[in-house]
Design goal:
The chain is α/β, with parallel strands linked by helices. It has a single domain, classed as NAD(P)-binding Rossmann-like Domain (Rossmann fold). It is 40% helix and 17% strand. It contains eight helices and nine strands. The strands form two sheets. Strands 3-2-1-4-5-6-9 form a seven-stranded parallel beta sheet, sandwiched between helices. A two-stranded parallel sheet has the order 7-8. The mean pLDDT is 92.
Length: 269
């Protein structure tokens, strides 16, 4: 696994002393020796760089362990948690293990997603259920089990997609699941508010991750896709992680129930 690239910002201790659980902290395997880091791994590493202890949860043991090792290289306390985020029992167990190892949780990040099917006609009911189970069901379960045990003043961040704002892909299941995250975010924000727990959604556009590259490979023209982005380039997982970190920290103390779009202006034009 190549060393993750670094952000251009300098750590200032935004999450010093915080205990963070990142669900979906691994990076999708790639045969590309120069494969970029995924959003979840970048979030975990940046959280550690900003002073947090991080529970790195993933369905893949090797992916979770690799991210935890990178957290350690940043000087942070990190450990791997393995589980299927779509399974209620395993989701609950991941939260419990993170709490047992780190203590009271201050923050929860949920970064999961797959896209299956192309058009309504070519999406099977089984594919629909599979996508909704991971993309929307897993965040629901994480919030269901995570919110009750979080510290007062904590923060939950879901990682969504620009597909939640428009029909951005060929998968109706993917677009619908990501749209549903907006509603879930608002509800979690409402339930968390009495204890000062905030919930927000980061909405990435075209991001250079292993999953993003796989999606881009299916497009007929990458240059045409970039041409629709005012900033003229793909974003990076580190830029997504910077947005997540901001929403986790006290600088975002009066922001809850909202989506922060990270798309280079693509949705603005």
């Amino acid at each position: 696994m190549p060393e993750p690239q670094r952000t251009t910002t300098h750590p200032v201790g935004l999450l010093t002393g915080r205990n963070v659980l990142v669900i979906g902290a691994g990076t999708r395997p790639s045969e590309d020796p120069e494969a970029p880091v995924g959003n979840g791994r970048a979030v975990a590493v940046l959280a550690a760089r900003e002073g947090a202890s991080v529970a790195c949860a993933d369905v893949s043991p090797s992916a979770a362990a690799a991210t935890a090792a990178l957290v350690g290289e940043e000087g942070g306390r990190g450990f791997a948690v393995v589980g299927d985020a779509t399974d209620p029992g395993q989701s609950s167990a991941m939260v419990a293990e993170a709490q047992r190892e780190l203590g009271e949780l201050d923050a929860l990040v949920v970064n999961v997603g797959i896209g299956l099917g192309a058009s309504l006609a070519d999406t099977s009911p089984q594919q629909w259920d599979q996508v909704l189970s991971l993309n929307l069901g897993a965040p629901f379960l994480a919030a269901k089990y995570g919110l009750p045990v979080m510290a007062e003043g904590g923060s939950i961040v879901f990682v969504g997609s620009l597909a939640g704002l428009r029909a951005a892909t060929d998968s109706p299941a993917y677009d619908s699941s990501k749209a549903g995250l907006f509603g879930l975010t608002r509800h979690v924000a409402k339930e968390g508010a009495p204890r000062g727990i905030r919930a927000n959604l980061v909405v990435p556009g075209l991001i250079d991750t292993p999953m993003g590259r796989a999606a881009s490979a299916k497009r007929t023209s990458r240059s045409a896709s970039l041409g629709r982005i005012p900033l003229g380039r793909q974003g990076t997982a580190w830029e997504v992680a910077e947005a997540v970190t901001f929403l986790l920290c006290d600088r975002a103390s009066y922001i809850t129930g909202h989506g922060l779009v990270v798309d280079g202006g693509a949705s603005a034009v």
